[in-house]
Amino acid sequence: MTKHLYFDDPYLKEFSSIVAKVDSNRVVLEASAFYPAGGGQPCDTGVIIGQSEHRVLKVSKSEDGEDIVHEIEGSLDVGEKVEGRIDWDRRYKLMRMHTAAHVLSAVIHKKTGAMITGNQLGVEQSRIDFSLEDFDRAKIYEHCDEANRLIAEGREVKSYFTDSTSVPTLLAKGLPDVDRIRIVEIDGIDAQADGGTHVKSTEEIGRIEITKVENKGKHNRRVYYTLMQV
Ligand SMILES: [Zn+2]
Q: Which architecture characterizes domain 90-228 according to CATH?
């Protein structure tokens, strides 16, 4: 099983490891800081450096969910010592976007009871779909103002694993079946079962700006947002 370095330190940009498995240009390392796509968060990009430098094109979880699989340009050999470097600007924007999604969703859930029916994080723009009975655009902008007020307070974000089987989620479809659940908690705002990467304080998010609100039916009130530096 790949050691998932981003669980302990989402700010880790470079790391050393050893090639554990190779299948053509698909490479598994003993440890990796590369985030595989999942939970609406796109995968990281970057390079893996062995004898030469290999661009990382795509990162995904293995079918059994145990390994992080890097699809690279070229190939590597099992046992080779490597350095990994993730494209930090891209990852950090996604961490800010991801944490923003938590705060905005928590506020909308608290005010309306809405659940999340879909989401897609992006570097420039992200979207969240809500199952929301009453569709009131003005109210959604008000909820965003409330989210920004909380974000500016610099609330602490922490993560930990739990063996508990009863875990919180705002996902309408519930959670996949996994052995150990990782909880991401934003002080006084939100606690969610979650495998993604987040900033350590909400003030790093900046300010959420809603760019578009679309009504795609009761179960898909779609909110697009971007982030401003403050
Ligand atoms: Zn998250």
A: 2-Layer Sandwich (3.30)
pLDDT at 177: 65
Rounded to the nearest 10 degrees, how much is the dihedral formed by the CA atoms of 189, 195, 200, 202? -40
For the chain, the structural domain boundaries read 12-86, 90-228
Tell me: pLDDT of 53 over 70.
yes
208 Cα distance to chain centroid: 16
Ligand 1: centre distance to CA 175 (Å): 13
Distance 15 CA to ligand 1 centre (A): 23
Q: Which residue shows structure tokens 């309306």?
A: 112
pLDDT at 179: 67
Distance CA(186)–CA(181), nearest Å, equals 16
The alpha carbon of 196 and the centre of ligand 1 are apart by a number of angstroms equal to: 5
Q: Give tens-digit pLDDT for 177-223.
A: 666 789 999 999 999 999 999 999 999 999 999 999 999 988 899 99
65: left (phi over 0), alpha (psi -120 to 50) or beta: left
Is CATH 2.40.30.130 the right assignment for the domain spanning 12-86? yes
pTM for this model (two decimals): 0.94
Query: Can 12-86 and 90-228 be said to share one CATH topology?
Result: no
Q: Which two tokens stand for residue 53?
A: 């430098």
Question: Token match 């880790």: residue?
Answer: 12
